[in-house]
Amino acid sequence: METLTYSVEEIAKLLRIARGVAYQGVRDGEIPAVRMGRRWLIPRDRFHAWLNGETEDGGEG
């Protein structure tokens, strides 16, 4: 069963970037994420839409 979210560590591995760079992208709002307590969760669907260059309104941009 696939999870609905990625951790910051998982997206760092997927993007082949340093964990600190991934955290900075999440904090700056560059990478779509949701804060849950002390943890950052990255919704899979929003992450893949972001990678594909899709905007929040469903278009590309």
Automatic annotation (TrEMBL):
InterPro entries assigned: HTH_17, SinI_DNA-bd
> Where does the Helix-turn-helix domain lie?
6-53
User: Sorted alphabetically, which Pfam families does this protein's record hold?
Assistant: HTH_17
Q: Which superkingdom is the protein from?
A: Bacteria
The protein's name is Helix-turn-helix domain-containing protein
